[in-house]
Fold this protein.
Amino acid sequence: MKKQVLLTPYNLAGLELNNRMVMAPMTRSRSNNEGNVATSLTAKYYAQRATAGLIITEGTFVSTKAVGFINVPGIYSEAQTEGWKLVTKAVHDNGGKIFAQLWHTGRLSHPDLHNGELPHAPSAINPNSKAYTTAGFVDTVTPKEMSIEEIKQTVQDFKNAAANAVKAGFDGVELHAANGYLFHQFFNGVSNRRTDEYGGSIENRARILFETLDALKGVIDYDRVGIRFNPSMHNAMGMMVDEQTIPTFEYIIKRLNDYSLAYIHLTEPFTNVDDVPFAVSKVAKHFRPLYNGTLIINKGFNKETGTQIIEEGYADLVAFGVPFLANPDLVKRFEISAPLNKPDQQTFYTTGIKGYLDYPALTA
Ligand SMILES: Cc1cc2nc3c(=O)[nH]c(=O)nc-3n(C[C@H](O)[C@H](O)[C@H](O)COP(=O)(O)O)c2cc1C
């Protein structure tokens, strides 16, 4: 019988992946410890899922200012870097590959996470969304508009985080430029009203991303760097699609052809945008012709649709989020067409091992 295309190996710029199934980045907020460090539990969670061709970790904060969610393991301190070593070793010992997702939440944060100070953002505009604090999900506030100096510092924070990721033994890093977080806030006109070199034109709104890539030079090879985008995110996380949105992502993605990155990682729309002016409802199909390198697609895929999108040539790899969260042996289950465990949403962001380490694998 012909092997499912999802189960065939893939050469990711020299990194041999055992299959084309990627574990999508998922915040699990289990680092409820002093210093927000990844622990042996984090290592066990990822080791259980190491048969994925590639794991992308939960978003990990590049600085204290990047924080927008409690109990997330960061990657700015020495202790955090040491914690991640447990994770990379456990995944490698189990034959897997793992990238760290580098995250700055920008305005999707709250003063309670910053000793009462305002979160940073391109412009002082409230996303009218939620941030996750010790009090649970709370309303966001109007953030502080970043100074040029603060933008430059943020670029350095990504550089420092990437250096720590290399030290920690990660196979690469993914810049989180999706889902309404800091980079996305710079790209989008509803969140970026700046009139300096970081706002206004498409080139200016994309500038911080390319400055970050420049800063990574010498720290990590570009073929070990991926970037995640959610181009048609609309009416969610403070993002709105307008006439500039898709041209902005087209500009960015075309320009990334010059960088020979590990991959770009796109998500199909999180909400139905069929009737939203200027949005594209088929993201992989729209952007595939614009990009020469590896394309990962995500959101709502299963074995059949994941197979189909690769066979149609719109993506090289498929990332699965919730299916991997609830099925540590998802690869095996696809291989033998076994039924899947049901995810328990109540424990997505709670602490402890319930809903984290106790999803059963198939027994022989
Ligand atoms: C519990 C949970 C946490 C998530 N955390 C992140 C994150 O840290 N970074 C990110 O880029 N996406 C995050 N996402 C989005 C997922 O990566 C993915 O896009 C989403 O689950 C849709 O894919 P799926 O349909 O395969 O689950 C999260 C999703 C879930 C369910």
User: Anything to note?
Assistant: The CA atoms of residues 324 and 330 lie 6 Å apart. The radius of gyration is 19 Å. The chain is about 30% helix and 15% strand. The chain has one domain: 5-347.
